[in-house]
Amino acid sequence: MPTMNAKYISIFVTTDCDLGCSYCYAQQGRDDNVIDVEFAKVAIDDFFSKYPHRGIRFQGGGEPTLRLNAMRDILDYSRNKWGEVNVELQTHGAFDKETLKWIKDNVNIVWVSHDGLPDVQNIHRPDMQGGKTNLIVESNIKRLIESGITVGIRCCITTLNVDRQVEIVDYLSSLGVKTIYGDNIFSTDANEYMNHLYSVPSWQDYTEGFIKAKKRAKKIGVFYGSWLTVNFHSETTHNCSSCIPYPRLTTDGYVSSCDVTSLGKDGPDIFIYGKWNSNTKQINYNKKQSVILNSRSLENLDRCKHCSIGPYCAGSCAGKVYLKTGSLFTMDHETCKATKKLAHYLPLGMGKEEHEIEHP
Ligand code: SF4
Ligand code: SF4
């Protein structure tokens, strides 16, 4: 999930996936839809015409590398028309050699989902038959790093690994990883049955484990971050790019501003501000909705505007706050307490730490 400085258009490439992660928020929408490449081309032209950024991020819903042809077509078009583009990919990391080669040739930053320790990875993120995935994912992480690609790890924190965050930093560091985001999972209607082996950790356990891991990471030259700390390095008016809004294209033809709305038909609708028209080959943008999204700024958040760390949080993640409270213009109490606790221990406004890349 990006901060406001993440300057790219995002594309939910497909709803298809070949892993069976039990906490996956997209699991109820799982099928084999693929992004309409014509839609993506028009949206890229719109975005690149409006902003100077030349960045494309491929992500889930499902697993983008299952549809290399769609990504290939989109990048060929973008590079021919707009020149060099910075490419970011979010992947489960369980791909074959051909895919590995394509990534090496085409992608600048790869975010691999790995839950920090082999035993946890294999419980959280098995394949469809329940088989282990740690070996192939860890092998691909090492191959990517060896080839000079910037690799960050997205690590989901549950009750299984919440007390093992120091161990996670050490283990991933031993694979050559320099950037890790350890994010506590939260329950939604889509994933709340999860797995009997684990559940959502308390914010107290999460922040305690995070602070210890942060210290360890600093000591060994690794960046360890959280979705709660993404704005700690400098002041902001908006929590993330969803409230600019920047586009995320869904496989069912909508322009969403937030990762939590990866399918227009499933919503939440509040983050939808455009719709592809395949007859006219145009995107109809909803300007009124863009204005509403953009107005989620610190000055319009009554519960946050006088907060002492307000400029380093700006109301926290709009998507999660909306899912938990049903409103964009409020805050979630537990998230707020966790953010304040981390802000008490971590320096604010100190500039970026070495190795940091923006939260995916
Ligand atoms: S508001 Fe949406 S896009 Fe932004 S950090 Fe939250 S989930 Fe991610
Ligand atoms: S820490 Fe809490 S009150 Fe302060 S800006 Fe964040 S959500 Fe709002």
UniProtKB/TrEMBL annotation:
One of its GO terms (molecular function) is metal ion binding. It holds the Pfam family Radical_SAM. InterPro entries: 4Fe4S-binding_SPASM_dom, Aldolase_TIM, rSAM, rSAM_sf, Sulphatase_maturase_rSAM. Keywords: Iron, Iron-sulfur, Metal-binding, S-adenosyl-L-methionine. Coiled coil: none annotated. Gene3D superfamilies: Aldolase class I. Signal peptide: none annotated. Residues 12-161 form the Radical SAM core domain. CDD domains: Radical_SAM. Its cofactor is [4Fe-4S] cluster. PANTHER family: ANAEROBIC SULFATASE-MATURATING ENZYME HOMOLOG ASLB-RELATED. Belongs to the radical SAM superfamily. Anaerobic sulfatase-maturating enzyme family. This is Radical SAM core domain-containing protein.
